[in-house]
């Protein structure tokens, strides 16, 4: 007897294939590392490793970043394993990576880092998939968020993924604070995606530029509003300590004063001035109780010499040659132990007051752009395969289908638009392609379920 399939069953096959093409793909399970995850929930102003306070002692790591060609150092297992012994010599526990290929597997490097006791702070943007500070509304689109979410998928199961960064220095001068709502919306969306997909609560935050007019305003903005909207931490790039210097000469005493009582963890995502010879005197202050009541350590810029003078080592193929900065940082880390106990940190986590519009803050109210409708679907279906570093890019992908269509608030796993805009441009109806490979898998499954009967 021949078995026929109704149009409804075939429609189900096509629908399922479409979900597999546009949503959750069939992926090889990624390995999970075995370090104790770092948390912030319920611990106020600090990071914790289990019940112990955790201080970030690390370096920024993006070999080849000065070549103009973006590469993924975590997917390059050979280079990663080449560099880990030098991380160990430095005595670090964290690296920050600025860009990865979210279409590749990272098991080998992440497990090797975990074996060495090293965590990862990861930027989810790449040069092609990021907010455009000159046009944040158009660049905040579903194509961009699909890439961001795919990066989360690629790293969420590793226990040594310490945190995700939703942006780096998007606001880089006194005149582009209008980008702030979009940075905060991405942070909100990332937090919601992590929760909606059932991942552990991996901290999400932003890395801010050292702009005197608005760095603290941005800090308050990222920590105001509902818990859904608040950042899990705030990070700053700071190069104000230039050896020889001191806690007061550098102005770090004012940093501590200005951020005392700030309601979420704070760390330096970049530091290490090169105006003079670097001896890293600031390490002695950063891990001393004069600062640990407010800061949870930081990351030195940067591991490899990329033509800008900041490198700790020079890499030539398989050869790594440490320089005097490497030796100085190694000595500085070894000389300054972490404080005992909680290091003077408060255990109170409190939201700040959102800054009001001013000459230094071009944000009219507390509204955030709603997540684009096409991106909201990923909360339930998953992001699918990432575009990697060679994708077409997202900054010019904004249109009536992919952009935000109003303001919104996030809560309880949903994002609901509260107003709409009529200014969106249209490029016509877009019909996603059917993934024939995925369809063949579905048909094969249905064929098997039908007992191997032939399709008419």
Automatic annotation (TrEMBL):
Q: How does it sit in the membrane?
A: Lipid-anchor; GPI-anchor
Q: What class of enzyme is it?
A: transferase
Cite the EC number.
Answer: 2.4.1.-
Residue ranges under compositional bias (Low complexity)?
392-423
Superkingdom, taxonomy of origin: Eukaryota
GO CC annotations on file: plasma membrane; side of membrane
Tell me where it resides: Cell membrane
| Keywords linked to the UniProt accession | Glycoprotein, GPI-anchor, Hydrolase, Lipoprotein, Membrane, Signal, Transferase
GO MF annotation, one: hydrolase activity
Enumerate the residue ranges of region (Disordered): 380-430
UniProt key word RNA-binding = no
Signal peptide extent = 1-21
Q: PANTHER family per the record?
A: 1,3-BETA-GLUCANOSYLTRANSFERASE GAS1 (PTHR31468), 1,3-BETA-GLUCANOSYLTRANSFERASE GAS5 (PTHR31468:SF5)
Q: State the family it belongs to.
A: Belongs to the glycosyl hydrolase 72 family.
* Function, as annotated: Splits internally a 1,3-beta-glucan molecule and transfers the newly generated reducing end (the donor) to the non-reducing end of another 1,3-beta-glucan molecule (the acceptor) forming a 1,3-beta linkage, resulting in the elongation of 1,3-beta-glucan chains in the cell wall.
The entry's protein name is 1,3-beta-glucanosyltransferase
What is the species of this protein? Answer: Hyaloscypha variabilis (strain UAMH 11265 / GT02V1 / F)
